[in-house]
Amino acid sequence: MVMSGARARFHLPIVATALAILVSGCAGSAAAPQPVPRHVFVIVMENKTPAEALSGPFTASLASSYGEAANYSAVSHPSVPNYLALTSGSTWGISDDSYHVLPKQDIGDQLTKAGVSWRAYMDGLGSGGCLDSPVPYDPGHNPFAFYGGGCPSNVVPFTSLAADLGGNTPLFSWITPDMCHDEHSCDVSVGDSWLRQTVGMITKSNAWTANGVLFIVWDEDDGSAENRVLSLVVAPHQSHRVSNQAYNHYSLLATIEDLLGVGRLGKAAGAKAMTDLVQT
C-alpha cells in the first residue's frame, strides 16, 4: 500500500509500535525451504514390445532392480507423433513420419523461458545439422527440430554428454540414440549394449547420484493396436517396484514437468503423473 505523506498523520508512538510488530512478525517467520532441483534424464528407444526390449540382459537387469511401469502405452503409430507427445503433450494431428514445422510450444522452449538448463543429445548428429545429418541419425527421432522449424542451440551431438556429466550437467537431458543404437534398425543386443554403456555413464555421475532420475522408454511397439511399451524409472536408492497403473507418454511428460517445476503442456495437464515410481 502506498501512503501519501501529505495526508497521513501518525503519532510517533503508534508508528514505533507498528514497526515493532512488523519486524517481530518477519523475524518469526522463516521462508519455506525450496526443493533441491533434481537432474532428469530421458532416453528414448525404438519399436519394441516390452518382451522384446526385455530380451536384452542389461535392460532386464534394470527392470528387475529399479522401477517398471508395466501398464504403459505409446499414444500412436508411427514414431513421430509419439516423440511429439513426449515433448509437447500433443501429436499435433500428425499420423506419419514426415517432417512438419510446428509452433514453439514444447518442453525445450518451456524450460528456456523458465530459466531451467537443458540439452538434447543426438547420437549421429553431425555437420549436416539437425535436419540433414546422414543416417544412422534420424531427424524424425529429434522432436526439437520440429518446433519452430529448426533446432535451438541446446541440441548437441551425443558426444557432448560425457563431458557434461563430468562438469556442468543440465537439469534436463534428453538423449536420442541413432537408428541402430535405439533398436530400430539393429538387433536388441546392439541397443542393449549401448544402453549398458550410456546408463553406466549417467549413473556414475554426480548429477544422477545426487537424487537424479533417469527415464528409459520405447517410443512405440512393433505396430500392434495395443501399443504397449517398456518404461523404466532408474533412480538412486530406489528399490525394485512395479506399477500396474495405466500410464502413457503424456504421463511421462507430466512427471518430468512436475520434477522440473514447470507447468504441464497439452494433454499432460490431464495425465496422471508416475508418482508411485518417482516422487515429484
Explain the overall architecture.
With 280 residues, this protein is of the alpha/beta class. It has a single domain (40-225, 246-270), classed as Alkaline Phosphatase, subunit A (3-Layer(aba) Sandwich), CATH 3.40.720.10. It has helices at residues 12-28, 50-53, 57-65, 79-88, 107-114, 129-132, 161-165, 188-203, 206-209, 249-260, and strands at residues 40-45, 67-69, 72-73, 118-122, 155-157, 172-176, 213-218, 231-234, 241-243, 247-248. The chain has an eight-stranded mixed β-sheet with strand order 5-4-6-1-7-8-2-9, sandwiched between helices. A two-stranded parallel ribbon has the order 3-10. α6 links the parallel β4 (118-122) and β5. α4 packs parallel to α10 (249-260). The radius of gyration is 23 Å and the shape is globular. The chain starts with 11 loop residues before the first helix and ends in a 20-residue tail after the last helix.
* Widest beta sheet: strand line-up: 5-4-6-1-7-8-2-9
Note the total helix count.
10
Q: Using the 3D structure, state the CATH architecture.
A: 3-Layer(aba) Sandwich
* Uncertain spans: 1-33
CATH topology: Alkaline Phosphatase, subunit A
- The coarse silhouette is globular
Count of all domains: 1
The residue fraction in helices comes out at 25-40%
Structural class: alpha/beta
Give the SSE string.
HEHHEEHHEHEHEHHEEEEH
For the secondary structure, the number of strands is 10
Q: Mind describing the biggest β-sheet? A: 8 strands, mixed
Q: Identify the CATH homologous superfamily.
A: Alkaline Phosphatase, subunit A
Alpha-carbon distance between the termini?
37 Å
Q: Which value, in Å, is the CA radius of gyration? A: 23 Å
| CATH class placement | Alpha Beta
Average of per-residue pLDDT values: 90
What amount of the residues lies in strands?
Answer: 5-15%
